[in-house]
Amino acid sequence: MNYKPPSAKPHVCASPDCGCGLSRRDFLRLSALTAAGVASPLLAAGDALAQTQRGDDVPVKIGYLPITDATPLLVAHARKLFEAEGLRTEAPRLFRSWAQIVEAFVAGQVNVIHLLSPSTLWVRYGTRFPAKVVAWNHVNGSALTVAPSVNNVADLGGRIVAVPFWYSIHNILLQQVLRAGGLTPVTRPRDSSIGAREVNLVVLPPAEMVSALASGSIAGFIVADPFNAAAENAGIGKILRFSGDVWKDHACCVTFLAERDIVERPEWAQRVTNAIVKAQLWVRGNQLDTAKLLSSAGAGRYTPHSVPVLAKVLAATDYVAYENAGVVKNKGWHQRRIDFQPYPFPSYTEALVRALRETRVEGDAKFLEKLDPRFVAGDLVDDRFVRKAIDAVGGGAVFGLPADFRRKETIVV
Questions:
Q1: Element of type H or E holding 293
Q2: Among 161, 167, 345, which Cα is nearest to 251's?
Q3: Tens digits of per-residue pLDDT, 233-276?
Q4: 338 is in which domain, residue-wise?
């Protein structure tokens, strides 16, 4: 119980007035981005900033949350892989919430971010901000962590579970797991009654989830590591299900670039992608060194996490202990807790659009009804740069990718 999150005291609120777990300020900021009258000044500010830095001399300005999803960006910075590509960099900026990172990205304060894959749909089609996915950051790397008293999905009935963002793979998979267990996901004010077969979902910044679970204000959370590992190591919670055990080798976070940078500076975009791909390849063979590099004891102090917590995620070679405990259901998938490969499979994007349509989210989600999955796979993602970057390091085989860059999505709830 000694875990101390890098944030202020937890804020858990399911009322519509505060955005279900987001601070009121974050909720208003994020909602405002959907209004052209407010989003336009932010976009104009970003354009003005971009005009002062022409060509490929634009510095790499990383925005990230302190989760393992950011690993490729941070490793590329720490190992000076951007500089090796002839790029300048600024110190990466750590953000506390997804709302903050999206706002900074739209305003041009950061230009290379990792973002939840479903959130890229919301940004491009919901807020109409022109940006594209250029690579995946990692696969798997998330889990549903619950209080020690919770032994199965049914035990979550009548209780509260936190997700990091409505537009997240976490929200999608959690709702699938709950429904498969006979439970109904709902989003209600915190003081509302919850039925015995209902689970109330709230949005909570990742950095606040462990302390919220420890205080008993939530019964569980689903989020990226290392917060799941932190709860495990501190004896606060236990893994009930890994996200990668539901959707095999799914993307969680992706690398997101503004379309203006891709169109006006394609060589810059290529060099950024090259560095990120090289970082992923290095991480695959240097898991423990990666944990040390990202830790609070590392020279860059990129995250507030300890080496043991990060190593529990990054250096894990299999699921054997979890399989023996019955946590992992799909034992033949032979996955790592988190793995790294950069290619954005079109089949995943198409399946993501379909899954998101069946997922309960707060706010105006009407834009989802108009999206054609196949169109989105070609419009949201630009894989030109990552294909070249992968070829430059030896081809897809070095990441265990199929030669034709195609796969069939496997989802077993």
A1: helix 287-294
A2: 345
A3: 999 999 999 999 999 999 999 999 999 999 999 999 999 999 99
A4: 24-139+251-324+333-399
